[in-house]
Amino acid sequence: MDSNEVQDNQLMIGGILATDLAAQYGTALQVYDISKVRSQIHAFQRVFRENDIDYAVSYASKAFACIAMYQVLAQENAHADVVSGGELYTAIKAGFPMDHISFHGNNKSREELEMAVDNHVGVIILDNFYEIQLLSEVLATKNETIDVMLRVSPAVSAHTHEFIQTGQQDSKFGFDILTGQADEVLQQVLKEPNMNLVGVHSHIGSQIFETDGFKIETEKLVKLMQHWNDDFGYMPSIINVGGGFGIKYTDADHPIRPEDFVQQILTTLRHETESRNLPLPAVWIEPGRSIAGPAGTTLYTAGSSKDIPEIRKYVAVDGGMGDNIRPALYGADYDAVVANDVHDDNVELVTIAGKYCESGDILIKDIELPVLHPGDVIAVLATGAYGYSMASNYNLNPRPAVVFVENGKSQIAIERETYADLIHLDKKLDI
Ligand code: LLP
């Protein structure tokens, strides 16, 4: 627990007692300390300014998006990448500036592309040949033009969980560099009358701790720039290096600061472009986890427990894999505190179980916590990325409420789902 405040042994989030938030809004509750979102965006922006490099800090919506989040991002002059019509729709409804949107995805539908074109999004990041054909038709029909980038797969295997690696050669995303696909698509897109090619994109994975992958990625992108310039007379004005900067979940994690990854990328870029006598492109980044993750805390109420002598003590909470699938899906580890009793000498080893009907629904296996009693509020830390955004209604449990806090003030960002919400699309059969 690094940066949460503790007062009189009670956890505070954004200047408010966590237990007060739990009492006011109920649990399970997803809380965001918005000042942390803002300060991480500022830290990224500062690195670019210090290096005097044109930039965009484009938040990866998939980590967590809602209208309130897009409002905060817009205030901080961040861009946002969206990967679906749903994320785009939410950004539109939030009044987010469409010229700051990048549209990603490996199978965008014609309807999604039409929506992007109609709303004049800033850039569409092209992922495959089929999409180019679809977009070309959409643009011709509507007599519109749009900025595009090419997503290449740079064949860098970042050291992270296999499911969240994306830049290796055998990947479903982007155009392959090694087999010449990237050159082929470049030539094709340069001929497209309604597409304006502004740059190249790659993303090597998520929750990455080592800087090496980003260094190699940057080197490869600069090499590609040179090759495209020499052989096709095309010089990208933007390189988008994706996201993936790892964060600390538990004391076992020792990542460098997210902005330090960016510094490493910029140092490599300056060196590589200078030594090849190439102009310095603008650099875009797409961090999701590092902006949303540390800002989020999930509050649960402790309920039943089961003690199997000599084996394990389980304490169950009023949430679990429906609001945070990451432990079950990736074996992800989290840290937690008891919000109403942060530091206590009377500790025991417990396993925090969810309430879902699945044995794998364990939020934290074997954590030392003050002895828990029913009604205690357990705060699982750094849950802001890929928690609520991957939430489900498994077992027909409503999804939690989301609250934004800042400077002692809390506001609901997403209401708690009701039972009525759960069935609002259901239809009774005529039988
Ligand atoms: N840009 C692209 C093209 C991406 O595919 C991703 C993440 C990002 C940016 C943001 O990466 P970040 O900075 O958040 O690491 N559900 C998984 C993570 C999947 C990441 C997918 N792509 C998890 O819970 O760990």
Account of the protein in words:
This protein has 431 residues and is of the alpha/beta class. The protein folds into 2 domains: 3-32 and 295-422, Lyase, Ornithine Decarboxylase, Chain A, domain 1; 53-291, Alanine racemase (TIM Barrel, Alpha-Beta Barrel). Helix content is 30%, strand content 26%. It contains 12 helices and 21 strands. The strands form 3 sheets. Strands 4, 14, 15, 16, 17, 18, 19, 20 and 21 form a 9-stranded mixed sheet that branches. Strand 7, helix 5 and strand 8 form a beta-alpha-beta unit. The N and C termini lie far apart (56 Å). The structure holds ligand LLP. Ligand LLP is lined by residues 60, 63, 104, 164, 166, 203, 206-207, 242-245, 286-290, 326, 330, 385-386.
* Average pLDDT figure: 96
- Integer count of domains: 2
Cα(first) to Cα(last) distance is 56 Å
What is the CATH level 1 assignment of the largest domain?
Answer: Alpha Beta
User: What is the fourth-level CATH superfamily of the largest domain?
Assistant: Alanine racemase
Q: Which sheet architecture does the biggest sheet show?
A: 9 strands, mixed
CATH fold topology of the largest domain: TIM Barrel
Q: Could you say what the CATH architecture of the largest domain is?
A: Alpha-Beta Barrel
What is the number of strand segments? 21
Q: Determine the fraction of residues in helical runs and give it as a percent range.
A: 25-40%
Which hetero ligands occur in this complex?
Answer: ligand LLP
What class, by secondary structure content? alpha/beta
Oligomer state equals single chain
Catalytic activity: meso-2,6-diaminopimelate + H(+) = L-lysine + CO2
Pathway: Amino-acid biosynthesis; L-lysine biosynthesis via DAP pathway; L-lysine from DL-2,6-diaminopimelate: step 1/1
Protein name: Diaminopimelate decarboxylase
GO molecular function, one term: diaminopimelate decarboxylase activity
